[in-house]
Design goal:
By secondary structure, the protein is mainly α. The protein contains five helices and two strands, in the order αββαααα. The protein is 72% helix and 4% strand.
Length: 200
């Protein structure tokens, strides 16, 4: 890729990341407001469609006596919205970091400190965001069992217990490691660029 093509692509990516940053910032605010409304506004309208419960491709339609207590669903929904706001905040900060990186690259300087530090920050965000997702997923599963009383939904005596199997997805660790590696490569490129500039 020649220098002009790199600058052209960096300008496009800078615009995309800047727009993504603004959209994600708005999403964080909206999700946080909805989480607070769910907690503090006592309107039960948002609980009107809780008579179905979905497990993968299986959907259960529940009798009215099996519906969960509204306060359990309220806390579960508020935690879900709050977790979504936090994940959007991670993504928003990532878009902000990318905007700074592409601002430097579009000027034709890919081996500046901003780029290697940005890659390192993206690696940390990827790792922390992946861990956060794992925790939120486990909490959501536990709250699902608590909210609906899943054991009570099945015929008495047929199911002894209900367990949550937590599956750890470790793809985010590999991505974080790749970003860390790229940050070291770019830091080495910075040193080479500095040496080249000093000899000229």
């Amino acid at each position: 890729m020649n220098r002009e093509e790199m600058i052209k692509r960096a300008k496009l990516l800078h615009t995309v990341s800047k727009t993504s940053y603004k959209i994600l910032a708005a999403a964080v605010i909206v999700l946080a407001i909805f989480a607070l409304l769910v907690l503090f506004v006592k309107d039960e309208g948002f609980l009107s469609n809780v008579s179905t419960l979905q497990f993968g491709k299986v959907e259960l339609e529940l009798a009215e006596s099996a519906l969960p207590a509204p306060e359990n669903l309220r806390s579960r929904l508020a935690i879900g919205l709050g977790a979504s706001a936090m994940i959007c905040a991670f993504l928003c900060y990532g878009a902000y970091v990318l905007t700074g990186m592409f601002a430097v690259i579009r000027e034709g300087r890919p081996f500046e400190g901003v780029v290697s530090r940005g890659l390192r920050t993206m690696a940390i965000l990827t790792f922390a965001g992946g861990l956060l997702y794992q925790v939120v997923d486990g909490v959501a599963s536990a709250l699902l069992i608590k909210s609906y009383g899943l054991l009570a939904l099945f015929k008495e005596g047929m199911v002894k217990s209900v367990h949550v199997n937590v599956h750890l997805e470790l793809g985010f660790v590999l991505l974080a490691m790749a970003l860390f590696l790229m940050s070291y490569i770019f830091r080495y490129g910075e040193e080479l660029q500095r040496e080249s500039d000093e000899t000229l």
